[in-house]
Amino acid sequence: MNKTLMKQDWYQRNEIAITPWLFLVPGLIMFAIYVVFPIFQSFRISLFKWDGLGSLATHGEYIGMANYEKLLTRDRSFNISLWNNLKWLVFYLAAIPAGLFIALFLNQAVRGIRLYKSLFFFPFVISQIVVGLVFTWFYDPQYGLFNGIIGFIGFKPINVLGDPTLSTYGVIAAGLWPQTAYCMILYLTGLNSVDPEQTEAARLDGAKGMRMLWHVILPQLRPATFIAFVVTVIGSLRSFDLISIMTNGGPFGSSRVLSFYMFEKSLSEYGFKMGYGAAIAVILFLIMMVFIGYFLWRMYKDEKAVNR
Amino acid sequence: MFPKPIEKSSRTWQLGYQALLPTVMLLWLAPLLAVALFSIRPDSDFLIGNYWGWPSSFEMIKNYGMVFSSAMPRYIMNSFLITIPTVVGAVTLSCMTGFALGVYKFRGNLLIFFMFIAGNFVPFQILMVPVRDLTLDMGLYNTKTGLVLFHIAFQTGFCTLFMRNFIKALPHELIEAARVEGIAEWRIFWFVVLPLMKPAIAALSVLIFTFIWNDYFWAIVLTQGENAQPVTAGITSFNAQFRAMYHLMSAGSIIAALPPVLMFFLMQKHFIAGLTLGAVK
Predict the structure, then answer these.
(1) The pLDDT of residue A1
(2) Residues B54 and B190 grouped into a single domain
(3) What pairing do the DSSP bridges indicate for beta strands A61-62 and A48-49?
(4) Partner-chain residue, chosen from B3, B25, B121, that has the shortest CB–CB distance to A292
(5) Which positions of chain A have pLDDT values less than 50?
(6) Are residues B129 and B17 in the same domain?
(7) First vs last Cα of chain B: how many Å apart?
(8) Cα-based distances in Å from B260 to A61, B257, B271
(9) Residues forming a β-bridge with A271
(10) Contact pairs from chain A to chain B, CB under 8 Å
């Protein structure tokens, strides 16, 4: 009797301290095994020469920073990939103004507008694989819609994906299609919560058009812009599916990005260079960490503001 | 409301807008409509170069029938068997982590929360080699289970972000009141918080369903062949099999894209809530 009472006391006293950990444990374990540890393991693997057969300890050869040295000084393909990543990053951002533009166009209360909004959002829902296939056919020099259109205007057909100088832009354009849809939906939701009184007041003061958008509406859309920026940057650096489907990195490796190059080095017919691949992954990870860090810092400031 | 409501503008502009809407939409979806049109053409149309004209006959049943008599149904089945357990697993885990991080104040709370968020954004490639190795070591390479386990773990990051923010926004007085009543903490989770999380669970489920259904990278890293591969990976072998038979490749793509599209149209409200609520508050 006495013992159960004590037990209950102990439990009650500590219940609030223990419960969160009990609830966290399953998720934390899964996340640690599959996400946190692998990041550190990749850092380690990147210091080895390893073909992925046998264990790293017995079959890998420790070579220190040699993988990085080769990447940064002697690997032309790495340079091309890195440049293409930069192109992705810059041009992919066009999805944000484009999304805003479509959102403004659709932000009306006419009949059937809901259906239109969903149809405009469509490209984001279908898989990038299908988007890639659709655009590969769209660009096809012989029967593609793209060349049908430019032929109609009077231009010669262009083999966008077969041209080393154009291939990356062709793939980025395909990526912009779903990404613009994503940004559009973020802005549509944001526009819903724009304060109508502020807008009316500004309208009475004679603000309209671009000035209104810039000085009154956009500041209120900042949360949406922030999220659109984050998902677009992350999306651009993660681009893989489209490249794999549309060009497979070609022609002549001209449309590779780091994520694709890493995959090619570690898991394809070009051989299983796991150590070298891991080094590429680490560099991509470090680039992304800059943005992730910025994002977390912003969230941290928000948290502080809420708790104050 | 911005821009100015259309009903307050001139009659001509109103009519112009009504005409512009479907036009712009058709242009926006043109690449997709082209594929839909391809998928109901007979193959003879491609031989004679009739790509954009009226189809010489409508072969919808024949083309889609061909898709269903290939390995495609296997791949689609695999996709379901990978996607549904992942949705259940990730949502379950994140209900718990979200509850822990959203309700309790303890040291390391924010740190753990930020770890989940950061993990959710890392490039897949930094995980690729170790995760593939781990899956091989566990004997789960080329199995649906191997893929599901990874997806659950990875999606827990995003789901936790979402759930935690949702729970944090619930009225804390409810939990306080339950505590005053002397209700055990796990019962608070089960009887007080969980019922309020239904909209969040719905939103996350649709979203994760779409994410996982559309996954391609992990499908090609952790599986091969029709035993375990989902439809995103399967479509490439399907296309290799029917190379240059565009009517079949188009039909296959449309089939592969259909489930998330249906999911989106059926659960639209939840889907959009999911996309935005997780982040835009």
Answers:
(1) 45
(2) no
(3) antiparallel
(4) B121
(5) 1
(6) no
(7) 19
(8) 45, 6, 11
(9) A268
(10) 272
